Amino acid sequence: MGDIHGAYKAMQQCLERSDFDYENDILIQLGDVVDGYDEVFECVEELLKIKQVIAIKGNHDVWFSEFLETDFHPGFWNFGGEGTIISYLRHSDKKGVYLPSRSSYKTTLHAADIPDTHLDFFRNQKPYYIDKDQCCFVHGGFDRHFSFWEQQESIYYWDRDLWRDAMHHSNAEADLEAFEIVTKFKKIYLGHTPTTNWGTDQPLTAFHITNLDTGAGHSGRLTIMNIDSQEYWQSDPLKNLYKKNFRN
Q1: Contact residues for 178 (Cβ-Cβ < 8 A; gap 6+)
Q2: Which of 14, 79, 91, 139 has the greatest number of CB atoms lying within 10 Å of its CB?
Q3: Cα distance between residue 47 and residue 45, in whole Å
């Protein structure tokens, strides 16, 4: 499943339309559960119901995780954080407040307001996952010119060059041989860089890399894929599910 960004309604649709089995199927979620629409709490609660979930950490999850550990949000709740604040304040025991403050937000939300089960969820997210078939699952990407295993952890969350390079070379036949990756994987699945940047809300594949961020953080769709069959299912467009687009 690609980047969720608090879009619980879209998440429900994907799980229902794919006939996902909460007891027997394995869900690999590619990160960015938070920041976007205002149902982050519900998204995490739903993920916790799944018996076998492999949660990858995204860059927005990194920001939220730092808030959980320090009560300081390094992104100042910009870039979709309003939706995360609203979601957790709605489920806190106290009357919560958040206010725009120049280029950021001020809020009464504290790490202590987040349920322990949610704290554990974000603490246990992985920077990447490699399965038995040597398929790689990562939020952002990695530097293809160096060993996958020797990179700074932040690269896995933030890199966009792997996907952008793959798209560039796949569209230029003369450059096909130039697209080399030092560490070989059978397939790579990632998110982070929405396919809507290329004019589509469908998954895209370049070489053996598949991008499952189909714009759920904006007005695109959320996508879930069966990696064995390559069949995928999608939510309705987010603009049809929510009146307010928190990311724009």
Answers
A1: 169
A2: 139
A3: 6
